[in-house]
Write a structure and sequence with these properties.
The complex is a heterodimer of chains A (about 250) and B (about 200). Chain A is mainly α and about 250 residues long. Chain A has one domain. In chain A, about 70% of the residues lie in helices and about 5% in strands. Chain A is built from 7 helices and 4 strands. Chain A has helices spanning about 30-50, 60-80, 90-105, 115-140, 155-200, 205-210, 210-250; strands at about 15-20, 20, 25, 30. A two-stranded antiparallel sheet of chain A has the order 1-4. Chain A has a two-stranded antiparallel sheet with strand order 2-3. In chain A, helix 1 packs across helix 3 (about 90-105) and helix 5 (about 155-200) runs antiparallel to helix 6 (about 205-210). The mean pLDDT of chain A is about 90. Chain B has 3 helices and no strands. Chain B has a domain at about 140-195. Chain B is mainly α and about 200 residues long. The chains are: A mainly alpha (about 250), B mainly alpha (about 200). Chains A and B meet through strand 3, strand 4, helix 1, helix 2 and helix 3 of A and helix 1 and helix 2 of B. Chain A: Its main location: membrane. Chain A: It comes from Mesorhizobium metallidurans STM 2683. Chain A: One of its GO terms (molecular function) is proton-transporting ATP synthase activity, rotational mechanism.
Chain lengths: ~250, ~200
């Protein structure tokens, strides 16, 4: 049956393009790496070229770049205050990287970088690593106050502190799994519905007529996925801002 | 047929996927365990992390050093320009307001001046009319006086003549009635008493 050939998982396969093996580690340049390069290239080129005229009255593309810049800037200022602006390049890079990676992944036959847990986990670990390193650098052991909420009775602290620690430790996991799972699920669903179109079409005229419904679904899902791509990049950036706020102001 | 061509397109990557396993085993790298879900395949982790670090690191540096100063600069320049323009507009508005106020003041002054000029002209015209009237009145009075004088002299003459006529008539009547002549002075006295 046709369904055998429509494998929704196939799109997540890693293919080695240039095999590299150093010290027993497989560090090959894969399709994933290719699309990371593509993501960075597309995002950089867009931001660079759209602002190259430096117009006082921006054109369409320059407006998009400025909107992205001000959007992230306001997001960071709202949640972490003006002190947080030193992390603006990090948050802006994360937002643009995730957004462009998500959007690029929507093109047929394109690999979705953010649909691999290790990539999203790498980004989440970067965020949490920054929070921990900066937190201890700025506040020393005072950063541990993050786990001790003010105004809680001592007896309750026995319960609250472990909960706070667990919640802190689960942050990188929730941050990475949220993005990964959204992208993975979206792409599998898209693939399945597109597969229905192909499978049904194989059954002749009736099948072609019947395939209109999954086709419409696939179109609608594509629109939804564009929204999800943006939304997940936004959520990732917002949560990054909030975690960075903890590093700046540990006592809450 | 349309359907088969679409199907062929879909089938192409599946074939490619089939050969992919073969190329992997031929390069000598440990092949993927069959059935592992690709995103959870630890064999791909080192490579993905390395390339993520390289690409994201470069991206971060590029944004921090090139893109963000540029976009930030554009926005700052625009904000400065807007503030400047607003200040300029406020200044121009102030000037316009001042001009309007000066104009209104001048208008008010001109109005009062026009009023005084009108008043003066009015007064002058009135005074002139008054003097003219007075002159005419005086002339009329003089003429009236002359006329009255003439009338009274004419009247006096007439009265004088009336007296002589009356005396003559009286002497004639006396002569006719009495037959004697009355003295002139008596008649004159009698006429005078009657005429009174």
């Amino acid at each position: 049956m046709a369904a055998d050939k429509v494998d929704p998982i196939h799109q997540f396969n890693i293919v080695k393009l240039i095999p590299i093996n150093i010290g027993g580690y497989d560090l090959s340049f894969t399709n994933s790496a290719l699309f990371m390069v593509a993501t960075v290239a597309v995002a950089s080129a867009f931001l660079y070229l759209s602002t190259s005229s430096r117009s006082l009255v921006p054109g369409r593309l320059q407006s998009v770049s400025e909107m992205a810049y001000e959007f992230v800037s306001n997001m960071l200022r709202d949640s972490a205050g003006t002190q947080g602006m030193k992390f603006f390049p990090l948050v802006f890079s994360l937002f643009m990287f995730v957004l462009v990676a998500n959007l690029l992944g929507l093109f047929p036959y394109f690999f979705t970088v953010t649909s691999h847990i290790i990539v999203t986990f790498g980004l989440a670990a970067l965020v949490i690593g920054t929070v921990i390193v900066y937190g201890f650098m700025k506040h020393g052991l005072g950063f541990l106050k993050l786990f001790v909420p003010k105004g809680v009775p001592v007896v309750m602290l026995l319960l609250v502190v472990p909960i706070e620690i667990i919640s802190f430790l689960s942050r990188p996991i929730s941050l990475s799994v949220r993005l990964f799972a959204n992208m993975l699920a979206g792409h599998i669903t898209l693939k399945v519905f597109s597969g229905f179109v192909v499978s049904l079409s194989a059954f002749g005229a009736v099948g072609v007529a019947g395939s209109i419904l999954p086709l419409a679904m696939a179109v609608a899902l594509t629109a939804l996925e564009v929204l999800v791509s943006f939304l997940q990049a936004y959520v990732f950036a917002v949560l990054t801002c909030m975690y960075l706020n903890d590093a700046l102001h540990p006592s809450h | 047929m349309f359907v088969t061509s679409a199907f062929a397109e879909e089938a192409a990557p599946a074939v490619e996927g089939g050969t992919e396993g073969a190329t992997q085993s031929s390069t000598g790298v440990p092949a993927k365990v069959e059935g592992t879900f690709p995103p959870f395949d630890p064999a791909t982790f080192p490579s993905q992390l390395l390339w993520l670090a390289i690409t994201f690191g470069l991206f971060y540096l590029f944004l921090k050093k090139v893109v963000m100063p540029r976009v930030g600069g554009i926005i700052d320049v625009r904000n400065d320009r807007i503030t400047q323009d607003l200040d300029h507009a406020a200044r121009l508005k102030g000037e316009a307001d001042a001009a309007v106020a000066a104009y209104e003041q001048e208008l008010a002054e001109a109005k009062t001046r026009a009023n005084t000029i009108g008043q003066q002209a009015n007064d002058a015209a009135k005074a002139e009319a008054e003097t003219a009237r007075k002159k005419i009145e005086a002339a009329l009075d003089q003429k009236l006086g002359e006329a009255e004088a003439r009338i009274s002299s004419i009247k006096a003459n007439a009265m004088k003549e009336v007296g002589t006529i009356a005396e003559d008539t009286a002497s004639a009547i006396v002569e006719a009635l009495v037959g004697g002549k009355a003295s002139k002075t008596e008649i004159a006295a009698a006429v005078k008493s009657v005429a009174r």
